[in-house]
Design brief:
Helix content: 10-25%
Number of strands: 10
Oligomer: single chain
Largest sheet: 10 strands, antiparallel
Strand order of the largest sheet: 6-5-4-3-2-1-10-9-8-7
Number of helices: 2
Radius of gyration: 20 Å
């Protein structure tokens, strides 16, 4: 009888521990890359999103900005297209800039958080792949999930 009681207590503790665990947002791999749609209000564009060695990259595929690559390494945001290359301290860039925003989100995910300068963000994933990232009125949707 003592063995059965002890076994039941162990099971109860295990189930209580499992019930209290919350699913953490996905942490980006050292490198990840996917095709996505960036939407805010009525504005949207298709892009490639890449996270590599602590830098977020967004390359625009349509709109008047086609071919523009935005990147943020945590210190600066860089704009490049063809021979044009312009860098600016991240403090001087609007927080809704896609590269800056993704840098903040991926960095927060690495530390287990869900806050960026625009507020609380949400991340949906399937099989470890990002499906949607949302914050404020901005949504980034992986094209594979459309």
């Amino acid at each position: 009888m003592k063995k059965i009681t002890a076994f039941c207590c162990v099971l109860a503790l295990l189930f209580c521990g499992c019930a209290q665990q919350k699913e953490k947002p996905p942490v980006p791999n050292t490198e990840t890359e996917f095709e996505a749609v960036y939407e805010t209000g009525d504005f949207r564009f298709h892009c490639t999103v890449k996270w590599a060695r602590g830098t977020a990259f967004v390359t625009v595929h349509d709109t008047n900005a086609k071919g523009l690559t935005l990147s943020c390494d945590g210190r600066q945001v860089t704009f490049s297209k063809g021979a044009m290359l312009k860098s600016e301290d991240k403090e001087n860039i609007d927080p809704s800039n896609p590269a800056l925003l993704l840098w903040e989100i991926f960095t927060a995910l690495e530390s287990g958080g869900n806050q960026c300068s625009l507020g609380t963000f949400t991340v949906d994933q399937t099989d470890g792949r990002f499906q949607t990232i949302s914050v404020s009125d901005i949504t980034l949707t992986n094209c594979a999930s459309e």
